[in-house]
Each structure stands twice: as structure tokens, then as C-alpha cells.
Amino acid sequence: YDRLIAICWPLRYSTINTNLRMLLNKYAGIWSLVVLLEIFPVIFAARLPYCSSREVQSCCCEHSPVYKLACTDTSFNRQLGTAKTLTALLGPLSFIIFTYVIVVVAVTRIASISQRWKAFHTCLTHLLLVLLYYMPVMLAYVLGNLRLIQNFDLYTAVLTVSVTIPPMLNPIIY
After folding, report:
1. Helical segments of 68-151, H only
2. Beta strands in 4-43 (DSSP E)
3. Residue 45: how many CB atoms within 10 A of its CB?
4. Letter string b/e over residues 10-19, b meaning 16 or more CB atoms within 10 A of that residue's CB
5. What is the pLDDT along the chain (174 residues), one digit of tens a residue?
6. CB of 173 within 8 A of CB of 131?
7. pTM for this one?
8. What domain count does the chain have?
9. 65: which of 58, 114, 134, 144 fits an S-S bond (Cβ 3.0–4.6 Å)?
10. What is the C-alpha separation between 101 and 135, in angstroms, rounded?
11. d(CA 162, CA 174)
């Protein structure tokens, strides 16, 4: 979003991206979305009857390892978890791709090749970070759903590394 505004409307950047708008749009909006995405799985998992072990086999208390402990049909919870994960992964990724398509169209209209290169270079580091984050997470998600990783500890390690390493590389790349 920030790069879209900076490249497509550079002269209006400071009036569009005010502190209040950033606070409301980005932070309040994202936190609201996260709460909405997480509240329903928690409510539905809390209503399930648990009759076996209550030890969650995960490094963090996620929806999937919790509802798998229930002693009833959990197909709705599995579908809800899949929908939530796809929304959380593909929603922001679709928005990023959409904004970059607009940025590419705007940059190709710039007459100077040096200005085009500067605009693409500005976006390149962000795209690298997006790929560094989304590719391992989506790969871990696909491998887990297709049951290609049978060892749960290995799956947990792959998922943990895939969401930990990219943010740690963020300061190095920038």
C-alpha cells in the first residue's frame, strides 16, 4: 500500500498517508481482521467435547492441534481452519499482487529509464521479502495438508522456521 501511494501519487503521499489514516487503516483494520479470523475457530473449538488427552502437540496453541483432540466429528472445524488459513495467506498476498500490478503499469508510463529503475528497485526489496515469507509458509501449509510430512515434530519445525526466519532477515535486506 505504501509503495502504491509513493509511486502512483508521490505528490499527494503526505496527505494520503497521514498518521491518523495509517493508524486507522492499517493497524485498527488489521487487528480487527485478525480478531475476526481467530474468534470463530476459538469459539467452535471451545464447544467440542474433549475426552482423550488434553496435551496439545504443537509449539503454540493453534486451532488445528486443539480440535484434533476432540472425540467427535471435527470436519466443520477442519474446513473452518482451512478457510481461515487460506484467507489469512491469500488475502494479503492477493492485495500485494494487485497493488504491484498497478505499480508496474504506472512505472512503465515513466519516460526516463533511470526513474523506472529507481521505482522498480524501491519495490524489489519488498517483493523479495514477500516471497521469502509467503513461499515457505505456503509450502509448509501444502506439505502439511497433503500429509507429505508424516512426522509432526518435523512439520512443527518447518512451520516455525518458515514464520521466524523471514522476519529476522527483514533488517538485513533493507
Report:
1. 75-108, 113-145
2. none
3. 22
4. eeeeeeebee
5. 777 887 788 888 888 888 888 888 778 888 888 888 888 888 888 888 888 777 777 666 677 778 878 888 888 888 888 888 888 888 888 888 888 888 888 888 876 888 888 877 877 877 887 887 788 777 777 777 777 777 777 777 777 777 787 778 777 766
6. no
7. 0.71
8. 1
9. 58
10. 19
11. 19
